[in-house]
Design goal:
about 300 residues, alpha+beta, five-stranded antiparallel sheet, two-stranded antiparallel sheet, 9 helices, 7 strands, disordered N terminus
Length: about 300
């Protein structure tokens, strides 16, 4: 009776398992969708570095992510049966995705190759940037925000202006919509190069800052407070900034070199040639490439007025 009961229980356990006839997934295989396997490495990669506070939360997250992987594979298999993977459009998108993935993986490899700055480099950077650390600045700024104009003459027209009222008047005369408000700029939250430029401004200067998303702000500093940060915070911030800057420089150097070399073999159809930019005048100082800014950090300002 005991033997028959055990066999019956084994049969019940197989109900609903598509892979039961071929053996339940074992080892590094956590699920099978038809003939496709989902491995523990697949699941770990899809978790994208998720850190759970305990094993129970981790298991729940794994089950949720695994369900998403299984569903995706089921739908993909159904799409293949409809031969959607044989269309020219799919081939084009697949090529684009493969190229983007290759570039991303190469970039990640470069990121891992960049060493962290040593303590002496960090301490030197902190000492050279008191406005970020020992005398950290917090600015109160009146700003006028407007969309990036298509008019190439606007930048020149902004140059002699000294007040935000003059900026508003100019924008109004050119029918450029704008909004006004007051904001705070924390030196520790933006690119140090931006703060270096801000500190060079005269009290009555208005500065222009391009923003992500196709907008521009004109700003005027109305108040500056000093709010020093502790040594531990300064070291963490300086270490991260220096490493992020070196990472961006490494990527720009490697990618830039490869692109410049590759462009020599590119041939364009008539009418699709890239626009040639005028060569820099002899003796002109080229603009330095911007270092990787902190998230949301504005670019270095362009000064207007005297």
């Amino acid at each position: 009776m005991k033997v028959k009961f055990a066999v019956a229980m084994a049969a019940v356990a197989c109900v609903g398992l598509t892979a039961c006839g071929n053996g339940q997934p074992k080892g590094q295989v956590v699920a099978k969708v038809g003939k496709e396997e989902v491995t523990a490495l697949d699941l770990q990669s899809a978790m994208n570095g998720f850190q759970a506070p305990n094993a129970q939360v981790r298991k729940a997250a794994e089950q949720q992510v695994l369900a998403q992987i299984v569903q995706r594979k089921i739908l993909a298999q159904a799409a293949r049966k409809q031969k959607l993977d044989k269309t020219p459009e799919f081939a084009r998108q697949q090529q684009q995705a493969t190229e983007a993935l290759l570039v991303r993986d190469w970039q990640e490899k470069l990121v891992k190759s960049v060493p962290a700055p040593n303590p002496d480099e960090v301490n030197t950077f902190i000492a050279q940037h008191p406005d970020l650390y020992s005398a950290r600045k917090r600015f109160t700024v009146d700003v006028v925000r407007f969309p990036t104009p298509n008019d190439p003459t606007l930048a020149k027209a902004l140059q002699p202006l000294h007040t935000l009222d003059e900026v508003r008047a100019l924008l109004t005369s050119r029918k450029i919509p704008f909004g006004s408000n007051q904001t705070q700029i924390d030196a520790l939250a933006v690119d140090p190069k931006f703060i270096e430029q801000i500190m060079k401004l005269k009290p009555d200067d208005v500065f222009i800052v391009p923003q992500p998303g196709g907008t521009v702000i004109a700003g005027h500093i109305v108040d500056t407070k000093v709010d020093p940060v502790g040594n531990d915070i300064a070291k963490r911030h300086a270490t991260e900034y220096l490493r992020r800057t070196r990472v961006q420089e490494t990527i720009n150097r490697q990618f830039g070199s490869v692109v410049q070399q590759g462009l020599k073999d590119v041939k364009y159809a008539k009418g699709y040639e890239p626009v040639k930019r005028p060569a820099a005048k002899p003796g002109a100082t080229p603009a330095a490439p911007a270092a990787a800014p902190a998230a949301g950090a504005p670019a270095a300002p362009a000064k207007t007025g005297g």
